[in-house]
Design brief:
Two copies of one chain form a homodimer.
Chain A: H1 6-13, H2 29-41, E1 47-53, H3 60-63, H4 66-77, H5 83-91, H6 103-110, E2 118-122, E3 125-130, H7 134-137, H8 141-156, H9 162-183, E4 191-193, H10 202-220, E5 221-224, H11 227-232, H12 244-251, H13 256-271, E6 280-281, H14 288-294, E7 304-305, H15 312-325, E8 334-337, H16 343-353, E9 358-363, H17 365-368, E10 387-394, E11 397-398, H18 413-423
Parallel strand pairs in A: 4-5, 4-9, 6-7, 7-8, 8-9
Antiparallel strand pairs in A: 1-3, 1-10, 2-3, 10-11
Helix pairs in contact in A: 4-8, 5-6, 9-10, 12-13
C-alpha cells in the first residue's frame, strides 16, 4: 500500500473552505428549546441580534480576515437539519421526556435555514447584526460566536510549524487532564459542557467532551449543551433558557407594568412547553434582587435557578435565603452555576454548598478555550475574549439586559437608565468580566 | 473518497509483528566506530555480551512475554544494512571527516547480520547472552536494550484506552517542551541525544529528537547518537567509544602489566583510526583516579574526556585539575557529560564550568524515557530501569568494569577484587544508580 494516499492529498489541496459549523445541530440545546417556544408564541416578533466584543482592546477586524468570516457565515447559511438529525430530535429523550419537540415544530424546523447577516468593519471591530424574525435570528447566536472564536484561533496559530502545533495541543490536553483529576476528587459533582460559543475550535471542544466522558464518567459528567456532540457521543443534551426571552418580552411590552411582569411572563410561557428539570429560572436579566422581590410565590416551586452574573457563592446564598423565606427546602432545589467557571470556583462552590442544595455546573470557556501557557511563546490571540451575541432590538424597540454585574449590561444607555428606574439597582455589583 | 481506507485497515489486521528495530542503523554511532576498529585490529577475539538488569525488583520475565521478545530478537536478526544506508555511511561526513569508514570495512559491513542469541528465564529475569566473535556480538548491545525497553513500555500501556494513551503522550510532550524551554536559556549549550538504548520507543525517541531540533536549533542541539535518526533528519551522528574496549583488552591481556596498560592501548588503537573530535577519553572503566595517575603525557593532548560514572561537577573538576597539572589549558579541552543527566544537572554543570572548559552533554534516559507523572494513574512499569548489556567475557576470560561508582561495576566478584588490587580503589564512591 502506498505511503501517501494520493487521492486524499489531492482532495486536501482542493479544499476551498474548512467549515467551522458543519451542522445546524452544532448549537446549544437551549436555542432549540427556546426556538420551539418562540415559534409557538412569538412567531411574528422581529428581533435583531448583535455581536458585542466586550474586550475592545482586541481588534477583531484586524485579527480576522473579512473574506474568511463571510465565507464561514455564508457556509452556515447553506446548512439544513439533516435527515438523521431530524429523526434524532424526534426520537431522543431530553431531560427524561420523549417527544419534547412537537411534530408541527419539527416539520417547520426541517425547512429552517439561517437568515441573512449584515457585516461591516468599524474602528477595528466587526459590526455583525442579524435582522429579521426572532424565530430565525435567534439561531445565529451560537454559530456566529463559534465562527468568530474559531477564526481567531486559526489566525492565532497560522504561523506555527507542525511541531509547535503539536506542543500547543499536547500542553492543552495535559492541562485539561489536570482539571479532570481535580474534579474527580468531588464525588457528587454534576458537571456539563457549556462551552460551544467560546470554544477554541469544534474539534477541540469534541476532544474536551470526550475527555470528560472518559475521565469523569457519565455519573459526574452529565452531558453537553452542544446538540451535535450530544447526539454523536450519546450524551444528554443540556440547557434551558437564556436572557433573550425576558429581554425581548420586556422590549415589546406595551407598558411599564407589562415590562415589569416580563420576567414572570417568560416563566409562564416556558411552563406551557416544558416541565420538570427544565423549569430553571434565569433570574438576573434585570437584576436578581428585583426579580426575587417581585416574584409570585409559584416561582419558588420551580426546580431551580441559574444565577448567571453574580459570584457563585454570593448568588447562590441569595437564592437559598429566598427559598427559605418562601418556605421551601433548598435541599429539594437545584442551583446551576455557569458564569465564568474555572476549577477553583467549581471546587469552592461545591464545598460551600455541599449538602445544602443540589448543584450542577455548566462549564464554558475555561473548559473549551483554555490555552493559557500552552503556546511555546506568548500569544495573546489564543486567550479567549468576552464575546457575546445579544438581542439588541425587538419589534424596533431597544432591548436591554441589566444583569447583576453592570459590566455585563447591554443596550442603549438611556434605556438602561429607564430599566434601572423600573427594576431598581439593588444588589448589582461590578465584577471584572474576562470571559 | 471513503472515510475508511479499507486496504490499510485490512493490512493493519494482518500485522504479525510491529518491529521495534527496523534497521541496523537504529543503533548508536559509537558502535560503528568501535566496530571498524574491532574488525581491523581484533577480528578473532571472542566476546560475550550479557544483559544486566540492575533493578532486580523489576521482574522483566514477568512483565515481558518471552514469545514477543524472541519474535523481536529474531526479526532484528533478519536485518541487513540497506543500500541507501550503505551509500550514506560511505558518502556522509562524520565529525567533519569524509570517508571515515574504509571501503574494505563497508564491504564487510554490507554482509553483516546479528549473530544468534541465548535466552532463558531465571528468577523472574531474562538471561540474554550473545556469544561469538566480538566483531559480531558487540552489535547486539543497542538493539537488545531498545527491544527490551520498548517491549516493557508496550506492556505497560497494554490496558490503556485510546483516550488515556492520548493523555499519556500529550503530557509527555508537554513535559518535554518544558525541558526545551529551560535549556533554551543556556545560549552556549551543546547538547545531543544519547537516548537510544533506554528509549520508551523508537517513535517517541524520534519525536524527542525532532523536538530538540526544532526547539533548540542546530547550534545548540548538535546531533544524535542514533545513526538512523541522524540520517533521516540530517543531523550529526555523534558518539565515540565505550567501556567494552578497555574491558575486552584488559580481559585478554596476557599479563598484569598489559592489563594495566589496556586503557592506554585502547587510545592508541583508536588513534590509528580516528582523530580530531573523536579523540575523546572514557577514563573510568577501572577508575578515573588510576587512569589519570598512570596516563602517559600524550593522553593530555587528546581533545577531551567523557567522565561517565562520577557526578558531573566532581568528575569534571578532577579532569580539569589533571589537565592543569599536565600543563594544558582546559579552555582548549572538551568535557562530555553523559551519565544520568536531567535538566537540573545540565544547568548546574553548564553554569559551573561555563568559560572554564568546552562542554557537551549527551542526554539519555531522561530525554527519551521520561513518562513520570504522565499516566492518568500510577504506573511503575513506565519508569525506566537501569538495564545494560555489557561484555562479560573475552576469549573465555571474565571481563570487568570497576567504574568510578561501585554500583555500576560489572563482572565476577573475585575478578573485581583482582582489578582493584591492580588499579587501586582511590576515588571510587558509591552513588545510587537509577537509570
Amino acid at each position: 500500500m502506498p505511503k501517501t494516499d494520493i487521492a486524499r492529498r489531492v482532495y486536501n489541496h482542493t479544499w476551498k473552505l474548512d467549515p467551522i459549523v458543519r451542522s445546524l445541530l452544532d448549537t446549544d440545546f437551549y436555542k432549540l428549546l427556546m426556538l420551539q417556544m418562540i415559534w409557538g408564541l412569538y412567531p411574528k416578533v422581529d428581533a435583531t441580534f448583535s455581536l458585542i466584543n466586550r474586550k475592545t482592546s482586541v481588534r477583531l477586524a484586524d485579527e480576522i480576515d473579512e473574506g474568511e468570516l463571510r465565507a464561514q457565515l455564508d457556509h452556515a447559511r447553506t446548512l439544513r437539519f439533516g435527515k438523521k438529525e431530524m429523526i434524532w430530535l424526534a426520537g431522543n429523550s431530553f431531560y427524561g421526556s420523549k417527544q419534547i419537540f412537537s411534530p408541527e415544530f419539527l416539520r417547520w424546523l426541517a425547512g429552517f435555514r439561517l437568515p441573512d447577516y449584515h457585516l461591516e468593519k468599524r474602528d477595528g471591530q466587526y459590526e455583525l447584526t442579524f435582522h429579521g424574525k426572532w424565530v430565525e435570528t435567534t439561531m445565529w447566536e451560537i454559530p456566529a460566536l463559534a465562527i468568530i472564536n474559531e477564526l481567531r484561533s486559526r489566525a492565532a496559530l497560522k504561523a506555527y510549524g507542525p511541531f509547535a502545533l503539536d506542543v500547543v495541543y499536547a500542553r492543552a490536553k495535559a492541562k485539561m487532564w489536570e482539571k479532570v483529576e481535580r474534579l474527580k476528587l468531588l464525588p457528587e459533582l454534576r458537571i456539563s459542557d457549556f462551552g460551544t460559543r467560546r470554544r477554541h475550535s469544534f474539534l477541540w471542544q469534541r476532544w474536551c467532551v470526550e475527555a470528560l466522558k472518559e475521565g469523569l464518567g457519565l455519573e459526574v459528567f452529565t452531558g453537553t449543551s452542544n446538540v451535535l456532540l450530544a447526539m454523536d457521543n450519546d450524551l444528554e443534551a443540556l440547557g434551558t433558557n437564556a436572557h433573550e426571552l425576558p429581554m425581548v418580552l420586556a422590549a415589546i411590552a406595551p407598558n411599564e407594568e407589562a415590562l415589569k411582569q416580563a420576567p414572570y411572563q417568560v416563566l409562564q410561557d416556558w411552563e406551557s412547553y416544558y416541565g420538570g428539570n427544565l423549569k430553571i429560572v434565569l433570574p438576573d436579566a434585570f437584576g436578581t434582587d428585583a426579580f426575587l422581590r417581585d416574584a409570585p410565590d409559584w416561582v419558588a416551586d420551580w426546580t431551580g435557578f441559574r444565577p448567571d452574573s453574580a459570584p457563585a457563592i454570593e448568588g447562590g446564598e441569595k437564592i437559598i435565603k429566598w427559598w427559605q423565606e418562601r418556605g421551601r427546602d433548598p435541599r429539594d432545589k437545584l442551583l446551576i452555576f455557569s458564569d465564568g467557571l474555572d476549577v477553583d470556583m467549581i471546587e469552592e462552590a461545591y464545598h460551600h454548598f455541599h449538602g445544602r442544595v443540589r448543584m450542577a455546573f455548566g462549564w464554558g470557556t475555561n473548559l473549551t478555550n483554555d490555552f493559557s501557557g500552552c503556546s511555546p511563546w506568548p500569544n495573546p490571540q489564543l486567550e479567549p475574549i468576552s464575546l457575546v451575541c445579544k438581542v439588541s432590538e425587538a419589534d424596533g424597540r431597544p432591548a436591554v439586559k441589566l444583569s447583576d454585574n453592570p459590566e455585563k449590561a447591554t443596550g442603549d444607555a438611556a434605556e438602561i437608565r429607564r430599566y434601572i428606574r423600573i427594576f431598581g439597582d439593588k444588589g448589582r455589583v461590578s465584577h471584572k468580566v474576562t470571559v
